[in-house]
Design a protein that fits this description.
By secondary structure, the protein is mainly beta. Helix content is 0%, strand content 54%.
Amino acid sequence: QVQLVESGGGLVQPGGSLRLSCAASGINLSIYTMGWYRQAPGKQREFIATISIFGNTKYADSVKGRFAISRDNSKNTVTLQMNSLKLEDTAVYFCSATFGVEYWGQGTQVTVSS
């Protein structure tokens, strides 16, 4: 059974940092393109970042320069380092794994509030 489990969310003040992790089981992440997405209340899920099997990264303009996606194939994990967090970064963050089929985690809540 394939599972993606996100962790690391929480409450942080504006300007703060969080590090999200996504741990996979049932699949070998090394052959998957990994991604992070988020969904704020009342909004559609939006793309945040992806990292290819070769380590090539792409970011949404809204997080470029503040967020960094990375992968550790030996640990079957992908992380999202989030710095300089803003109020508008508040959302549920999801990781995805894509290789023909697509898998999703259940999400982790990130709340940026003073």
